[in-house]
Specification:
Elements: H1 2-14, H2 17-20, H3 24-33, H4 59-66, H5 72-82, H6 109-120
Length: about 130
């Protein structure tokens, strides 16, 4: 019994509960209703307006960049809510946008956390 409990606990801690559900439709609805899909796509290589680089990074690229980082969930949720600095962009020359604007008015902290968990759980293509 203790071993089963340990295995179940470990599996729940390894994958965010919302992401584990694999509810892509709910995540995409949340992202669309919050305005995220204006700048972001899921798949890398998607063009932005006028054939330029996309405005923001593809979410599979985000998942790959932050894979294995223990503070990724907190760091990205903070970025979603507060925005990012154009002077510290680690997506420079990969996207056409300069920075991510603050989104506190568009999405709650709880929903931002859910969306970030879903993004980080996306399978990374090699």
């Amino acid at each position: 019994m203790n071993r089963l409990l340990l295995i179940l606990t470990a599996s729940l801690l390894a994958t965010p509960v919302w992401a584990a559900a694999g509810d892509d439709a709910a995540a995409l609805k949340l992202a669309t209703n919050s305005g995220c899909m204006t700048c972001h796509h899921i798949e890398p290589g998607t063009k932005g307006p006028g054939g330029l680089a996309p405005i923001g990074p593809a979410w599979r690229d985000v998942a790959a960049k932050y894979k294995g980082q223990s503070d990724a969930q907190k760091q990205l949720t903070t970025t979603v809510l507060a925005g990012s600095s154009p002077y510290e962009s680690h997506w420079k020359d990969k996207v056409s946008g300069l920075a991510m604007p603050p989104n506190k008015v568009a999405i709650s902290e709880a929903d931002a956390g859910k969306l970030v968990a879903w993004i980080l759980a996306l399978p990374v293509k090699n």
